[in-house]
Amino acid sequence: MPKRTTDELADLKAFAAVAHAGGFREAARLLQLSPSGLSDAVRRLETSLGVRLLHRTTRSVMPTEQGSALLTRIRPAFDELELALKAVTSSRDKPAGNLRLNVPVNATRLFLAPLLTRFLQRYPDITVEVIAETGVVDILAAGCDAGIRYDDRLEQDTIAVPIGPREQRFATAAAPELLDRYGRPQHPQDLLKMPCIRGRFAKGNLERWCYQRGDEQCHIDPHGPLIYSGGSAVDMGVSMAVQGIGVMYLFEAWLQPWLDSGELEPILEPWWQRFNGPFLYYSGRTLVPAPLRAFIDFVREDN
């Protein structure tokens, strides 16, 4: 069976257009092509098939018997193809389909839920799947359309769009009764004399607690009775900090409910380190699917 090519499909479309218009000039006008180009396309098709498809006279162009039979078979196929293309292009105006996002756990806790709620209310035909990770992954290899990361962890050759709060802080806090026992630290080094609750990253390394006041920076490796895995066990760590087990170091927004209630007391606040907010990032090497394009535009509008 002969292999059909993209050029042969284009020649079929040229033949159908000429037969429908009743001439090369009218078909060329409708398609905004040259009559000679259409004539060459039909001639190539006839040569490939080994049959004459059009009767040509100086006054008219009419399909042959074989040409009429071919038209009868290909017109439904071309109609279906046109409908399929229209369906794809219409999705730009009313996006539908699936959107897979790879995000850090803190994003799901701190800002992503209300953002996605507003997005899905606007685009009810889109389904969003959120994969929360504590480590950095290749979003394409993971089968995701886009990811959320901080600027120091962005993958190369990606396009980044700001998402969520544009400035964040790491807060340090402890239960008031623990501070009554050990005293309230005035310098980050004082934490080395206190029990601390520390997180371990996905790669296995323990987090360092980083502080800055003016030009002075301080990085410490505290010790304490509890080490939790980043992401899945953070809430357990916070709960134990509330019970007075140790000092907690975490995103300020994550600790805010307990700071507001007084269950945790902020300490060393002049030293809390500020850092830039996260980014939505995606590959610029592929065509952007309609659901992702809608989400990118929505995030830009939200910021």
Number of helices: 10
**Structural class based on helices, strands and sheet pairing:** alpha+beta
Contiguous low-pLDDT stretches (5 residues minimum) are: none
Give the mean pLDDT.
88
Q: Any guess at the CATH architecture of the largest domain?
A: 3-Layer(aba) Sandwich
| CATH T-level topology of the largest domain | D-Maltodextrin-Binding Protein, domain 2
What is the domain tally? 3
- What distance lies between the first and last C-alpha atoms, to the nearest angstrom? 56 Å
Q: Give the oligomer, counting copies of the same chain as homo and different chains as hetero.
A: single chain
Task: Kindly provide the name of the CATH class of the largest domain.
Answer: Alpha Beta
Radius of gyration: 32 Å
State the order of secondary-structure elements, H for helix, E for strand.
HHHEEHEHHEEEEHEEEEHEHEEEH
